[in-house]
Amino acid sequence: MGGAIGEVLAFGVGVAVSPLAVIAVVVMLDAQPGRAGAAAFLVAWAAGLATVGTLALLLADEVDASDGGDPATWVSVLKIVLAALLLVVAARQWRARPDAGEQPELPGWMSSLDGITPARSARLALLFACVKPKNLLLTVGAALAIAQTGAAPAAQAVALAVFVLLGSLAPGIPFAIHVVMRERGAATLAAIRAWMERENTTIIVVLCLVLAAKLAGDGLSALAG
């Protein structure tokens, strides 16, 4: 079990640090209906990660991702492919970065968050968790990392739960600050939003590069061995 959990830590952190998702939660908490919309977003976010991770894990187990405790050859090849796709995501983010001194432009949908219903908030979270390339690739990568260990189903389930928990931490932090600190937390949430808006591109690019290096390194090492 420990090996499977260890494999997903980096992937969970990579999914958690999703600046636009964090900003969306902060904006919802400052709008109407506030806490209800943000809570629906977080629940759907975790459910989306769990669903994609479970499907990928079941598929990987079905086609024998583990070869006597070592990753099967196709798993190593797929890791290298995922690494290449993460590099593509990083390149696209970098090309779209604002010029020096230019204020980052947020997506148009941010303006529709005031008054968003819990149902729409949940759909937005599912889009972020299940469709956004970075999160989708990292969730599949986490599932492969778990499956390749050949751990028992119960241990795999625990490892996936750890991944979902880690992947939900960053979007959940603003909600926790709002619940615990209430009005006193407004300045903290505003600072989090401002930093995330300013550093969005850098955060995504660095995460994609680091995790692409991990996936490629794991895949190449296994193939060479």
Explain what this protein looks like in three dimensions.
The protein has 225 residues and is mainly α. The protein has one domain (2-224). 76% of the residues lie in helices and 2% in strands. It is built from nine helices and two strands. It has a two-stranded antiparallel sheet. A hairpin with a 2-residue loop joins β1 (66-67) and β2 (70-71). α2 runs antiparallel to α9, α3 (35-62) packs across α6 (133-147) and α4 (73-95) packs across α9 (186-224). The chain is globular and about 55 Å long. It starts with a helix and ends with a helix. The model has no long low-confidence stretch (mean pLDDT 87).
- Rg over CA atoms, rounded to whole Å, is 18 Å
Mean pLDDT: 87
Helix content: over 70%
Spatial strand sequence of the major β-sheet: 1-2
SS-based structural class? mainly alpha
Order of helices and strands: HHHEEHHHHHH
Q: Which stretches are low in confidence, meaning pLDDT under 50 for 5 or more residues running?
A: none
Bulk shape: globular
Total count of helical runs of at least 4 residues: 9
Percentage of residues in strands: under 5%
Distance between the termini: 23 Å
Tally the beta strands. Answer: 2
- Give a quick account of the main beta sheet: strands, pairing sense, barrel closure: 2 strands, antiparallel
Number of domains: 1
Offer a quick outline of the entry:
This protein is mainly α and 225 residues long. The protein has one domain.
